[in-house]
Design brief:
single chain, 226 residues, 2 domains, 12 helices, 59% helix
């Protein structure tokens, strides 16, 4: 009886061990399969690279980002093109996205880091684009948004004229480097008083307008990838 009892105990332990091994394997399979399905459902990643206008977009339009969960918001308030260029490798290249939208320049015009020429601002933005292009990432250069004034630096005069000049350089450079150019400026300038809360930063209505503009561009990119 003792031998039989010991044998039953061993069999019981073996059964439990087999059960736990099976359970572990099942859990590993479930996790891996879930990740695989998630990748199949959402294989494309698109980075939005920018400053406060990009960063606050997600706060004002959470539903837009929920509906487009592949968008990665990499906006940092107050940053100039120089600062964005310095983090581009980390925040864009290492994300391995299919595409990047670059919206930059207004903080350079505002001289957040001191004076910088319009030509140099453009060059910094294009450098980001070239880095992305080198890594097989589709590049979309966004126009700087229209502006009536820069309230945190009243010394900046004719800010909107500077925006126009920068956008013209971005259009030319985008064509030269085979980048896509997304024109927010011309589609927002006539309603600017209704689309911003300070003559520069978009309000909820402004972000709704921006979302509508970029949505069409995103759909075209997604169709090309599918």
């Amino acid at each position: 009886m003792v031998k039989k009892s010991l044998k039953n105990t061993k069999n019981s332990k073996k059964t439990k061990l087999n059960y736990y091994v099976f359970l572990c394997l099942f859990l590993i399979y479930t996790v891996c399969n879930s990740q695989s399905n998630s990748e199949k459902l959402n294989p494309t990643k698109i980075v939005l690279m920018g400053n406060s206008i990009t960063e606050h977009w997600q706060t004002y339009s959470p539903l837009f980002f929920e509906e487009n969960s592949f968008l990665v918001n990499k906006g940092v308030s107050g940053q100039t093109s120089v600062e964005m260029l310095s983090r581009f490798q980390e925040d864009v290249i290492k994300q391995s996205p299919k595409a990047v939208y670059i919206l930059a320049g207004i903080n350079d015009i505002a001289q957040n880091s001191g004076y910088i020429s319009i030509d140099d601002i453009s060059k910094n933005i294009i450098k980001m684009g070239l880095l992305a292009q080198k890594n097989n990432i589709k590049v979309v250069i966004c126009s700087v948004l229209p502006v009536t004034e820069i309230i945190w630096n009243e010394k900046i005069k004719n800010a909107n004229q500077k925006v126009i000049e920068l956008n013209q350089k971005l259009i030319s450079s985008s064509k030269k480097n085979n980048f896509t150019y997304l024109d927010f400026y011309s589609k927002m300038k006539d309603e600017l008083s209704l689309l911003t809360y300070d003559g520069l930063h978009p309000n909820k209505r402004g972000y709704k307008k921006m979302s509508a503009i970029i949505k069409k561009s995103i759909e075209e990119i997604m169709n090309n990838f599918n």
